[in-house]
Amino acid sequence: MSSRLLLIGPPGAGKGTQAQRLSQALGVPAISTGDIFRAHLRDETPLGKQAKAYMDAGDNVPDSLTNDLVRDRLSQPDAAEGFLLDGYPRTIDQVRALDELLAESGQAMDAVVELVADPDVVVDRLKKRALEQGRADDDEAVVRHRLEVYAEQTAPLIGVYAERGLLAKVDGIGEIAEVTERIASALAARGILFTA
Ligand code: ADP
């Protein structure tokens, strides 16, 4: 059974953590555009140099760069039978690009998991992560800006996927394992079965 899934939710909702766990349980790669961009930044590649200013400011990297990157990643053999996208798409233009890309190979998304988390909780979580991991974009002012960008550019995608009947809303607050269980039951209700 193929699983083509995506995780959507504000910064700090726990998408990365859940994506790792789900990817293992489902046997499909977790593809995080944020992680891929951070690797480019670290390696100082041309793409990393182009993305840096946007990322440091908490703005979205331009769609054209992001869409090319995802097209390249999804064409790799490990994504042929399924994937779990984390942090992509995050604009309407990216939804369009993903739709096109999947249609070209006769594929379609199976489900979209929205991780719901209160802005105050996510700001607290990201403050902690700033201390632990030192991510430049976890500075409080930048976090607030990322939340605004999410509300303006990404939150509208939830309605788009709800209209397509793909949306599973899951409460992202709680123990890590508990949230994974909630995602597993929301997906089971849509016929996507695995042991969390
Ligand atoms: P978070 O979801 O916590 O904000 P991510 O690791 O997903 O963190 O993203 C970090 C940064 O990487 C974003 O603020 C943005 O600059 C860039 N980025 C990641 N994914 C995308 C995307 N799909 N489109 C544009 N920019 C992106």
TrEMBL record:
Its main location: cytoplasm. Its EC number is 2.7.4.3. InterPro entries: Adenylat/UMP-CMP_kin (IPR000850), Adenylat_kinase_CS (IPR033690), P-loop_NTPase (IPR027417). It catalyses: AMP + ATP = 2 ADP. The keyword Ligase does not apply. Consists of three domains, a large central CORE domain and two small peripheral domains, NMPbind and LID, which undergo movements during catalysis. The LID domain closes over the site of phosphoryl transfer upon ATP binding. Assembling and dissambling the active center during each catalytic cycle provides an effective means to prevent ATP hydrolysis. This is Adenylate kinase.
